Amino acid sequence: MEQREAENMEEIDLKQLWFMLKNNYLWIVNFALVAIILASIFSFFIADKQYESYTTLMLGKPRDYQSESASSEITQSDIQLNQALVDTYSEIVKSRVVTSRVIEELDLQMTTDNLAQMVTVNTVNNTEIIQITVRSTDPILSAQIANQMATTFSNYVSDLMQIDNINVVDAAVASNQAVEPRTRLNIVIAAVLGLMLGVFFVFVREYLDTRIKTPDEVSALSKYPVLSVIPKSDSLNQGGNR
């Protein structure tokens, strides 16, 4: 008996929730539309477009290690050493020495920290190839910085670690396709957030509204059954207006 009453109460609550959302759906839709409009304005007119260019380098081993392992087969230690060297090279690319030389060569009006923030260094599938990616608001400048950074890094590492076999696999080229802002993604996220805010607003609005609207609410408050309900009639309203 108690279980059946609990199921009935749950069914009533779900119905009330459904009717509440249905009667206030315009609020939810309006919140979503406003969020989409704001996201579109931000993406198309306010946010700066960001462009990326990248160059890839094939890195070798130091001369001393090359002479020691020239006649031997590739072992697990060789692979681990290569990966460790790639991690080391990745840190050198963004070092103050390299970034300051790039700024000087290209006559850039920025600090070494600002340039380092524009640069991302990744390994390619755990190989001896690293990818230097530069992001900025100018596609041509991004390509110039990436290529100059590859040249400066190669010269610096050759002297520092006695490495001769550093080769450029792919030179950086300017791309006219912006990677930021992601307009579609921003609009989708804004729509979802708008719907959530709309539903939250409806719940708060209904919670603060203390008016009695349904016969069930009358029964719950008075603890007496409702015998009859006077329906709202348009004809009565029209007669009253006469």
Molecular structure report:
This protein is of the alpha+beta class and 242 residues long. It folds into 2 domains: 1-47 and 183-212, no CATH class; 48-170, Alpha-Beta Plaits. 62% of the residues lie in helices and 10% in strands. The protein has helices spanning 2-23, 25-46, 63-68, 76-93, 96-106, 112-118, 139-161, 183-208, 215-222, 234-241; strands at 51-58, 119-123, 129-136, 167-170. A 4-stranded antiparallel beta sheet has the order 2-3-1-4. Helix 2 (25-46) runs antiparallel to helix 8, helix 5 (96-106) crosses helix 6 and helix 5 (96-106) crosses helix 7 (139-161). Residues 5-9 and 69-74 have low confidence and may be disordered.
Record the SSE blueprint.
Elements: H1 2-23, H2 25-46, E1 51-58, H3 63-68, H4 76-93, H5 96-106, H6 112-118, E2 119-123, E3 129-136, H7 139-161, E4 167-170, H8 183-208, H9 215-222, H10 234-241
Antiparallel strand pairs: 1-3, 1-4, 2-3
